[in-house]
From TrEMBL:
Lineage: Bacteria, Bacillati, Actinomycetota, Actinomycetes, Micrococcales
Organism: Cellulomonas phragmiteti
Protein name per its UniProtKB record: Urease accessory protein UreG
Oligomer status and interactors: Homodimer. UreD, UreF and UreG form a complex that acts as a GTP-hydrolysis-dependent molecular chaperone, activating the urease apoprotein by helping to assemble the nickel containing metallocenter of UreC. The UreE protein probably delivers the nickel.
A Pfam family this chain is assigned to: cobW
Entry keyword annotation includes GTP-binding: yes
């Protein structure tokens, strides 16, 4: 079959999001990709931290990429908002990188570590990797969520630790594959060269597809309603569906929980 006809190579870089719970190895995976690929493709990195630029500093200290190609966005209280609803600071960081160092082939965007529900908006990234690790337990892949089920790639990281946490890696990978209807899953350890090669091959292939205009971003879906502590210690329950309207639960009189819905300015800020 003939190759599909493609239009001109897009001027901008492939934007690849890396999401997943805190500590599963997102920053390490980005360092690994820079170390493996920076000689062959032009790269940049944007990190998201809640209150610091610590991940950016770790990557700069690792010496895997020119320091100015690693930019940090400080997200404030709600890290998933910055990759889902209010993506402007991230888009500006990506565009600044491309202006200062372009043309770039690939910009990696690390989400602020969160829970299982965070996903990137397709307005920010062309594709996304969701990272789990074996230390979170063999059952996590079965628990699902939009990132696990529908990210472009699921990585099950730190397979070298499996014997210590008594996780059956082949079983976890097959559960993950089932949760994804056969979508791609890679078991990864930075100590296992063949797994590193599987990851870099996927990234190379996706970079070529996106740069050739053959990839259509797919939204894994909005995050599920969730709760976290608000500024005054009250529990906030809300969804990220792009609407300005939020449901919040507050401790009311007599310590009863009160849930009510109201509008926020600016929209979606949580
Ligand atoms: N044993 C092992 N540890 C890893 C691997 N990848 C990352 N880690 C460790 O996991 C911890 C959290 O990694 P980090 O990249 O900061 O996670 P993040 O919060 O998702 O960005 C660090 O101590 C890393 O050294 C791996 O392949 N094997
Ligand atoms: Mg990190």
């Amino acid at each position: 079959m003939a190759e599909p006809v493609t239009t001109a190579t897009p001027a901008r870089a492939f934007r690849l999001g890396v999401a997943g719970p805190v500590g599963t190895g997102k920053t390490s995976l980005i360092a690994l990709l820079c170390r493996e690929l920076a000689d062959e493709i032009e790269m940049g990195v944007v990190t998201n931290d809640i209150y610091t630029d610590e991940d950016a500093q770790i990557l700069r200290a690792a010496g895997v990429l020119e320091i100015d190609r690693i930019r940090a966005v400080e997200t404030g209280a709600c890290p998933h908002t910055a990759i889902r609803d209010d993506v402007t600071p991230n888009l500006i960081a990506v565009e600044d990188l491309e202006r200062d160092h372009g043309p770039l082939d690939l910009v990696l965007v690390e989400s602020g570590g969160d829970n299982l529900t965070a996903t990137f908006s397709p307005a920010l990234v062309d594709a996304q990797i969701f990272v789990l690790d074996v230390a979170g337990g063999g059952d996590v892949a079965r628990k699902g969520g939009p990132g696990i089920a529908r990210a472009d790639l699921l990585v099950v990281n730190k397979t070298d630790l499996a014997p210590y946490v008594e996780v059956d890696v082949p079983r976890m990978l097959s559960d993950a594959s089932q949760a994804r209807d056969g979508g791609p899953v890679i078991g990864l350890s930075r100590h296992d060269a063949s797994s590193v090669a599987a990851l870099t091959d996927w990234v190379r292939r996706m970079t070529a597809e996106v740069r050739a205009g053959r990839h259509t971003p797919v939204d894994p879906g909005p995050m599920a309603p969730h709760s976290h502590a608000g500024e005054d210690g009250a529990v906030l329950v809300h969804a990220h569906d792009g609407a300005a309207e939020h449901s919040h639960t507050h401790p009311g009189v007599d310590d009863l929980q009160v849930t009510h819905t109201h509008e926020h300015e600016p929209a979606g800020r949580g």
